[in-house]
Write a structure and sequence with these properties.
Structural class: mainly beta
Distance between the termini: 11 Å
Radius of gyration: 27 Å
Number of strands: 44
Helix content: under 10%
Number of helices: 1
Amino acid sequence: MSVRHRSLLVLTLAAGGLFPTAAHAADWSAPSTVFAAASDEQVVRPPVIASDAAGTLTALWVVQGAAGSSLLSATKPVGGGWTTPVTVVSVDRGITEPALNMSSNGHAIAAWTERRQYRWNAVVAATRTPGGTWSAPDDVPTGPSPGPSGYTDAFSAAISPTGAALTASTRHFIEEQHYTVRGVEFVTTDKAPGGSWVVGANRRSVVPLPTAVKVGIDDAGSATLVYEQDGGVKASGRPAGGAWSQPETIAPIDDGQGGSPAPGAVGAVSGVQLAVNGAGTAVVAWQRSVGSDRVIQAIHRGGGFWGPIETVINGGDSSISELTAKIDPSGRSTAAWTISTTGSASGGQRFEQPQTSTRRVGRPWTMYDGLTSAVSSEAGGVNHLELAVGGTDQGVAAWVHTSETDDPSTFDRRLEAAVRTGGATWNSSTEVTTLAADAEPAAGVTPSGDATVIWPAGSTLRSSTLVGATPTPTPTPTPTPTPTPTPTPTPTPTPVVTPTPVASPSISSINGFAYGWLGGVAIVNGKNLTDVTAVRFGERKASAGFAVGTGVLVVVAPPQASGSYTVTVETKHGVATAPKPFTYARLF
């Protein structure tokens, strides 16, 4: 398939078609100020948001001024506004982007790194009980003592419903006199409620050093650890009170014989994401190259075992970035990313679009949704994509859309968002606010679908909320006096009208083309192809198409592995099956 065909396919699917996008019943609130710094201070790090199972949000952000840096926090209860910010820590040195995690019942951990001197830094953490205040910050041990200083490359933190905290980090150790690397180490640390940090038993020197680490804890206290190493993904688990399992490779690498990727060669992973829900179901997602294509893959763990690798999307030669993945309490996984294409459909300009895909338990990933609105469909850039899920089928995605103006030296920037409220469909994305400068948002959502977005604006932190649609109560009618009945004449029997039955659909033939993991176009011929509710290729459902009269459907074949699939058309009056399978050709 040519580059032009791939670009057209991406843009066509974003248009909707057979399954139109729902509209939300409310608008985003006018931006409000969560925090205002002094005149000589700025919000310098992107904020982060975490939520408990009830939907109470906690936010962290970093403010920097001439006197140093401060990490601040605020809480937003369900249905309420943000509380007065409190200071978690203030130092005369720099603070990196913080990590934040909350258990289902409201325990919280904040972790960050502080610069100490030269290139050395330390991982620092504070915890908070449900409804309580932040503890005094503690240095998290990440290396030998005594021993060489160093700097932390990557770290992650999680906390259980009992308040047991966990961190994982990778660290380079520095020879103090000549600032040369003397070694690398990968370490996990634990802190019991009310206790001190203790280096875990799986601390070890590793080569090469993992490039990313992620940890998560479920409601039973079982921990999951994943990290990138040797171009693949490795995972380890630990039951509550138990020991870490031996690492296993859940995403291997097979990069061919050097040079350009061989057909079907699997490249190194990047952008690894981990999400664990209270029941212990976990999803890990990453992006990589397969042959000359860019793909997003994922793997799930349920019942203590990792399943097979799943393909979320094959982006062809399009650029994929800003991957994120979440899982809700029901085990439904959602992935979001930004895809960039260039082609005739966008006038030869670069076209960037945020997209999502969802996987229910035991089902394949859905055809991706393009989160596009009238304000974000023009050529331009999409940056800082954020995703949050909560409850069952609730979600919010937020991003910054940047486009050129008539003045080449200035840009038009808008904060945009889309929500999913209790269903499989994302509502039309809308503009939250215009931005005077680039800003990285954070997002959260409650189990009832109330969505919140926060973002820095110079010396302030701003917020906007979209309240989930709720049914309008039916007013109780005012009773009226009952009139005295009058005799009713015997009615003349009304003849029964038998409705004309609607014929069931049928398929006489199916034509078109499709390529494995890219999809294609199918033309379905038959009779009574009206009131269509779904068109399926095997188990995958088409997400775009249109009808030509009552006997022809033109639909987009969803991406899936090469092979032959049974095509069915579901209508309000029955189900029709194509007389022969529809074939996806191999790309190589």
